[in-house]
Amino acid sequence: MFKRLPDTQGAAVAVTIDGEPFNAREGDSVAAALLAAGRSYCRETPVTGAKRAPYCMMGVCFDCLVTVDGIGNRQGCLTRVEDGMRIETQHGKREARA
Amino acid sequence: MPQDHDIAVVGGGLLGSAIAFGLAREGQRVVVLDEGDVAKRASRGNFALVWVQSKGLGMPAYTGWTINSTQAWPQLEAELKERTGLDVCLEQTGGFSICLSEREMEQRRDVLRRIHAQEGVAKYDVALLDRREVEKMLPGIGPDVVGGSYCPLDGHVNALRLFRAFHVANQRLGIDYKPDHRVGAIDFERGRFRLQTSQGEIEAGKIVLAAGNANAQLAPMVGLSAPMQFNCRGQIVVTERLQRFMRYPIGTLRQTDEGTVMIGDSYEDSTDDRGINTAINSVMLDRAQRTFPFLANVNVVRSWSCLRVMTQDGFPIYDQSESCPGAFIACCHSGVTLAAVHAYTLAPMIARGALDLQQTGVFSAQRFHVQKAA
Amino acid sequence: MTAMPLPKDHYDVVIIGAGPAGLAAAAVAGKAGLSTLVLDENAQPGGQIFRAITSTPVQRRDILGDDYWRGENLVAETRAGGAVIVQGATVWSLDRDLQIAVSLLGQSQIVKARRVIIATGALERPFPIPGWTLPGVMTVGAGQTLLKSSGLVPDGKVVLAGTGPLLWLYAAQVLRAGGAIDAILDTTPRGNYWRALPYALPFLMSPYRAKGLALMREVKRKVRVVSNVTSLAALGGDKLDAVAFSAGGAEQKIAADTLLLHQGVVPNVNLANAAGVAHRWDERQLCWVPVLDADGNTSVPGIAIAGDGAGIGGALAAAERGRIAAVAAVEALAPGKKSLTPDRSELSNTLRRAELGRAFLDVLFQPAQQFRLPEGDTIVCRCEEVSAARIKETIALGTEGPNQLKAFLRCGMGPCQGRLCGLTVTEMIAQARGMSPDAVGYYRLRPPVKPIALKELASMPHSEQDEKAVVRG
Hints:
The complex is a heterotrimer.
Chain A: E1 2-4, E2 12-17, E3 20-25, H1 30-36, E4 43-44, E5 51-52, E6 65-68, E7 71-75, E8 86-88, E9 90-91
Parallel strand pairs in A: 2-8, 4-9
Antiparallel strand pairs in A: 2-3, 4-5, 6-7, 6-8
Chain B: E1 7-10, H1 14-25, E2 30-33, E3 49-50, H2 60-84, E4 95-99, H3 102-117, E5 127-130, H4 131-137, E6 147-151, E7 155-156, H5 159-172, E8 176-178, E9 183-189, E10 192-197, E11 200-204, E12 206-209, H6 215-218, E13 232-239, E14 253-255, E15 261-263, E16 268-269, H7 278-291, E17 299-307, E18 317-320, E19 327-331, H8 339-352, H9 357-360, H10 366-373
Parallel strand pairs in B: 1-2, 1-12, 2-8, 12-19
Antiparallel strand pairs in B: 3-7, 4-6, 5-6, 9-10, 10-11, 13-15, 13-16, 13-17, 14-15, 18-19
Chain C: E1 10-16, H1 20-31, E2 36-39, H2 61-64, H3 66-81, E3 84-86, E4 89-94, E5 99-104, E6 107-118, E7 122-124, E8 137-139, H4 140-150, E9 152-154, E10 158-163, H5 165-176, E11 183-186, H6 190-196, H7 200-205, H8 207-220, E12 224-226, E13 229-236, E14 240-247, E15 250-255, E16 258-263, E17 265-267, H9 270-274, E18 279-282, E19 287-290, E20 303-305, H10 314-333, H11 344-355, H12 358-364, E21 379-381, E22 386-387, H13 388-395, H14 402-409, H15 422-433, H16 437-440, E23 452-453, H17 454-458, H18 464-468
Parallel strand pairs in C: 1-2, 1-6, 2-3, 6-20, 8-16, 10-11, 10-16, 11-12
Antiparallel strand pairs in C: 4-5, 5-6, 7-17, 13-14, 14-15, 18-19, 21-22
Helix pairs in contact in C: 1-3, 1-10, 4-5, 5-8, 6-12, 10-11
């Protein structure tokens, strides 16, 4: 769980997370937006289905993989939020045809 | 410290491991001498096919030997599972070779015709299918796919798990596995072999050279020969894990049991197994996305290059030494496909002390010398 | 052919990474008139230490502190120098011919350099404790990134655990921002204080001493600090519920929503390793470092490494090493422009001052064995979910090294390409086989060093000859 500092600057960016609307902030990565939204996990692993959340936030651990605008296995911490972005939990292996 | 071994297997890759496994099953006391972690290892870089189609042009007996192995493979899978608990995920669904132009289709037709026209070649089914027939079995293929050939004997396994399963099984069979024991010299005296390794001397009554390309240097030490190509590099690319979309492997594109897609494989004139040629990868990947257009957006996770263990004519060498009785050699590049026949057919011959020339005589390295003489 | 996102496909100097080392190198090379390209994966320059320096939403400057805001000057200086800085650029291949493959805006292209300076910095050392993969467990660096880029601080019950300066810096930043921390579990082994003593004198003369002690005092006034923590486990089912630990022989458990772990940083070696750069094991920093000369040149001609990727030295040393590598590049490519570069011996002196006290910090904050060599069900390879027990049993087969282990177990084969398991695997093999980590070695890495869309790799230029190597009848 993370909370925004009260005097944080930046315009709101409207995204959806698994269909639910959420206002992220300009400059947020997708992973930051997920944590700000209080999501406890962002993916289930393709190996055992274990739940995972962002871990390193710097692009090296690949635990923040999510589906963004229909494209699976995007690195949430290296993808910036944009207005209208659809962010979805990554359920295990990626769909080949999506 | 002198150790009591009936037989030393030089090489701990898939070939040496399969032979060692077969020898131990016959009650032999086996030591396996292996190199270190950064050795050139085809066993870590192969494409994991258990494959029949297109093999044997120029040596019909090789087709039969290959078919024998694919038929023995289910037994090997079951035995490894029983001994180790590891499932090597053998799938013998049949497999494809895909053609991306009429010209490729024509070449395919020609190769198959020539293989089957050879005298004494084992007969097996292989069908040339048009685009529509291919699409029924491989839904999602792109418009560039003209057709392909399908052989019901073909299949694939998890070759890395196979490699591990052999090592686990061999440990349980009591095989003495010695890593970092690169063999530099072999002496034969009074019916015994003394192998000089990077960590001292090993003695054994028999030896099997299964050291890949290094067999070329080792073979003459015991009156054998192994003419190798050395410079036959291949590259493979692998993607992230995907939900299952392929039911049948293609010779250069297959989905593993884990979900990753392996894309191969080049034939390059190179002995450098460290580097990656991105230009060659791009050709392989372009063909992959023309075969299945949806792969374009999938992430590639890794790529590697590896040297094939390829004899000069591309066919296996199985031989025994006349001047140093008890010395055997095995060289081949299809260590996955042939694993079953190595474990169940070749190893028992070696355990008995003599190759059955009815089956293996054609694979003797004598063929190279005869050609030279003629 | 579609237009490529980069304006040119050849540069005098290509610098990979826009942290302190990369920015400082680019400033020097650019000012000397070399055509200089900086490729950086992040959305903004600054690397990790100056992350979001040009865009942070954190308004009060005291929260992140003066050392952070120093990054503003560095970015300004670099921009003024004329270097082209490209953000969002993922370098996925570097070869011995100094060809760089970079992915940018969904396209890949090749850039050719006359000199390459790798400035890809560091990453946090793996901290493989039971439960470290649970949602709710992150690194301290991750927490700090969230603060710098998004103005986010942890909420609920917050525990920090581990050792090293970043732990205290981040704790102080969170407290200044009005956040709360329930406990800090300090895993610094008690014996380290004695072992570090011989290195203490230069440290006492360094700027780190006063700053470090002040930070620790600032934090200890407000937070429960448990010293000499000797075991640590994250507990929970689908997410973190509690942290179990032992200290002074007593087992304890505290409820937690967020556990932030840190036990130092280590060089990010993937790109250099895949380029064939020789590395050696550093016994004091317990990690791989590239073999370098005084100018930062590697074993591969034309490739230099600067910054924490050259061995951990901190932000000040990183910038100096960047400048030194850039001066060497100017000397090699445009000796006539040497007068436009800073004085080499002065840079060396500044570097020496910046490195004062580093040995003391290395030894003092050397993580304990039990936090580097996990046991039982603890996951070592996060991507492929390979446990310590499975690795140990496989090493016992006689497995020679990390590459054979990788083939047997898939550890290091996932998308992170060994970044989060490689050090652990090397040290586990070294321990089990009674060898030095240097003798055990590391994963042999190859491009792409980051996952890249297949269509991008498929679009790389190739010749008819390349086609012939693939297409066959």
